[in-house]
Amino acid sequence: MNGVVNLSNGSLFFQRVSYEHQGRYLCSPFNIHSTGGSSQVMEVLVREPPLFSVKPKELYQQPRNTEVIMPCEGKGHPPPTVSWRSVLQNDVATLVTSTLLLVESTTPHAPTNVSVNTSAFAATVSWLPGYDGGHPQTYVLWYRLVGQGDSEWRTIRVYPDNAITLTIHNLQPESQYEFQVLSRNAFGDGLYSEIVRANTTKWTYLEGAYPTDAYGSTYIPTVNRGANII
């Protein structure tokens, strides 16, 4: 039998196991005088972990109302089963692959990873774009002051269209604000991002510097009662 060696100590060495070696074996020690009889039958079962023969692509991007086929095929022993996540498994091992289906001509997905950096009178909001639905998307930043009944939401259209950061001016010092980002395209508004809260910092006259507005001009701030100014 190919790939099988009888060692000097009587052991049977399989150099590279294949399906050819699967079966039942027994051994019988003997010498010039006699034999010790046969051992119990030993059954060798060859198992092969699953392997992908056909994997789905990492990304499928299709228009609405069209068909898409995501193939997932594999081989192994025993034959593997396939379930869609896509998981390929048998008794030996489990393999998992993933794919992403994006449908075109839809409203955009929500922006993600919203972060806020604040000073006393300003906040810089940054985010990552979600899927644009296959069409250019724009953003609207929503924000409001938290506390004392919560103020109404204010909105700012983000320019240029591809910008993913915006600085808001004329905020109140030592105050908490909520921020969220909305994306939209030719098919309408998408989903809002998660709401992120951030606190503006303290401001003191002793610093000798007044805040600036969106145009870079300094101004004397009007501070609501309740904000601590030194």
From TrEMBL:
Record domain Fibronectin type-III: where: 107-204
Family matches, as Pfam families: fn3
Domain of life (superkingdom): Eukaryota
UniProt cross-references to Gene3D superfamilies, sorted A to Z: Immunoglobulins
GO biological process: cell-cell adhesion
Keywords from the UniProt entry: Disulfide bond
PANTHER family tied to this protein: PROTEIN SIDEKICK, PROTEIN TURTLE-LIKE PROTEIN
Protein known as: Fibronectin type-III domain-containing protein
Lineage start: Eukaryota, Metazoa, Ecdysozoa, Arthropoda, Chelicerata
